[in-house]
Structure formats: structure tokens, C-alpha cells
Amino acid sequence: EVDLTVAGMDIKTDGGNGGDLGKLTVTDASKVTAAGAVQASAGKGGEALVVGVDNRGGTSEVNVTGDIKLTATGGKGGSGVINSDSAGEVTDEVAQILVTERVSGAGGEALAVGLQNADGSLRADVQKLEITATGGVGGGGISTYGNINGASAFGGAAVAYGINVLGGLAEHLTVAEITVEATGGSSYRALDANAINKVNNDGAGIVGGQGGSGGSGTSYGVSNSGGSVGLTVGKITSMASGGAGGEGGSVRKASSATAAGTGGDGGNAYAYGVFGTGSSRTVIAVDEINASATAGTGGKGAAKMDGVAIAGADGQKGAQAEAYGVY
Length: 327
Description:
Layout: E1 2-6, E2 9-14, E3 40-41, E4 48-55, E5 59-73, H1 92-101, E6 102-103, E7 110-117, E8 121-134, E9 158-165, E10 169-183, E11 217-224, E12 228-241, E13 250-252, E14 257-259, E15 269-276, E16 281-294, E17 321-326
Parallel strand pairs: 1-5, 2-5, 3-6, 4-7, 5-8, 7-9, 8-10, 9-11, 10-12, 11-15, 12-16, 15-17
Antiparallel strand pairs: 13-14
């Protein structure tokens, strides 16, 4: 049994950043063969988790006279770096193997939960729950010193809960205000192709790397997936945003930089004021619920300029943006 009284909580957690790929020099194209699987990957961004109160059994009574403020940010994925000058050995076949089997690291996921009950009984009285989760940024795609260049990695997903009941009893909860915000991670712009004009001087025929897709953002003011909830709350605000797609990579020229990479797609967004599923029972007295979802914007593609045959298209906006007061 736990009986806890505190003035407030302010906790931040950040996932660690993934390491970059090492540089690679191709001295003999015949030695680069496809394995049919990823052979080397930059480090994925670390996951970030923060929970204010996590009751996994027994009886807990929590009185917070002020606010619970929690922030979780996923780590950045490692980038593919620019490969070393390979003296013309990177044919299109070799470049395709390099971008398929040497990949950048995805952004880390972020999860933030204000009050959580998995089992047992939880009673709580809190002034305000302010919960924020942001997915990590995906790493930039590799530059191969060839005509084909690597895509950037996806941004990390973000999920934020004001109250999350997985099981047990949480039938005596009082909160003046719940604000949750989840933003999917973006993606770094793909790294420059034709660095130092080593493939050719004018960039002709070279396609820049594609930007990575943004991560999804999902926010829950209150979620009950298997327990019993009784809550009195003044206001619930649930906001979700998909991550922005990464920008397409540039193609270098002797006289200027020309961007030719395609932008990445934006992430999806889902916002729930109150969410219930399964055999859960939820009873809530609430004055106001606001839920908003914004799909991530597509990354910018490159403009067509002299010497570059293919202009990069903009990425697509996130396909889904759904907001529910009660679901």
C-alpha cells in the first residue's frame, strides 16, 4: 500500500542518439555483392519513457497539490554519412546495393504517461496533468558517390496519455485539467549527392536521396483498455501531430547546389479525448473536451535546375488525421 503526497512532478527524459555509419570506400566494384539483407545500419534513436505514477498492483493513493508535468523525447537516429571517394567504382548496380544494405537509423519512439494503473487500485487527486511526447528524428540517407543515393530513415512514433488504465480499479480520480500532446518525429534531409563533384561536374543524371517519412503522433486524454475508471475532471485537451517528412537531398554541382531528392511523406495523427476498448468500464464527469489531430506535412522535394534531369517531388501530407472527443 502506498500513500503519497507531493507538491508536483516535473520529469523529462531523452532517448540517446544512434551512432552514424562509418565511411566506406569502394576500390573494386566486383567485390560489392548483394546479400539480400541489411548488412550495416546506423544506430536507431533510443526510446524515451516517462511515467508520473505507475501502479502495478496493491493499493495506491496519490495527492499532488500542484501539477504533474512530463516530457519524453525520442533519440535521433544515426545518419548514413557520405561515403569516401571511390574513384568511379560506384556503378548504378553497386549504388543500389549500398543504399539497400547500408541504412540510416530510425528515430526513437517516445511514450509519456501521467497516471497509469495496470492492476490493483489507484486513487488520485491532481491539479493538472501536462503530458508531452515527441518522436526522435530519423537519420539522413547516405551519399554513395554514385547516381543513386540513400533515403533518410523514418521519424519515431510518439504516444502520450494523461491517464492510462490497463486493468484494475481507478475509480476515484480527480483532476482539474488534463493536457496531452504527441508529435511524431521528423527526418533529416538526405545527405548531399555528388559531394565535391566527384561523379561529374554538372550533376547530370544523379538523383538525390529521398527524405524519410515522419512518425505518427497519438494522444489520449484518458484511455481505458481493461479496467474500471471513475474520473472527475474539468477540462481535457488532446492534441496529436504527425511528424514532418524529411527534405529531399541535394545534388552538388561545381558552381552551385541543385536539389533533386524527393521529399518524405508526413506522419499520421490520432487524438482521443476519452478512449475505451475491450471489457473496460469508464464513468467520467467532465466539463469540456477538446481533441485535435494534424497530419504531418510532406517534405520538400528539389527544384529542377541545369544539369539535373529529374526534379524531386514533394512528399505527401500524412494520410490520416483523426480526432475524437469520446471513442
